[in-house]
Amino acid sequence: MTDLLLRNVEVAGRTNVDVLVRTGVIAQIGAALTVPERCTIVDGAGGALIPGLHDHHIHLHALAADRVSVRCGPPDVTSSDDLAGALDSAPGDGWIRGVGYFESVAGCSIPVSWTVCTTSGPCASNTAVVPCGR
Hints:
Number of domains: 2
Mean pLDDT: 80
Helix content: 10-25%
Shape: elongated
Largest sheet: 4 strands, mixed
Oligomer: single chain
Number of strands: 8
């Protein structure tokens, strides 16, 4: 592992600080540090250097929903006939959650059909074209 020198960063409110990292460990902090041989230099442009900032959150609901969703794109679905088959074989008799659609399957604008039922009247079937976002 090569050394890393972070130039011109802010550390704990102090500006224009250099931080030298050797083999993954902070070795030196100060102003205008000497650059060792075989060192990668990164200009921090005065930005704050914050240790240990990690984003470890996950979306459990989305992961669970994805497991029971209909695959609508490659490699499982590669044609409009495959897509129709996947949607027709979806379990249940209500909403279908499809994931992974890609334009190579059936193009950019695909017809989407749905049925609306209310307790006060008959069911009405509708079809719309859903364009792809660009």
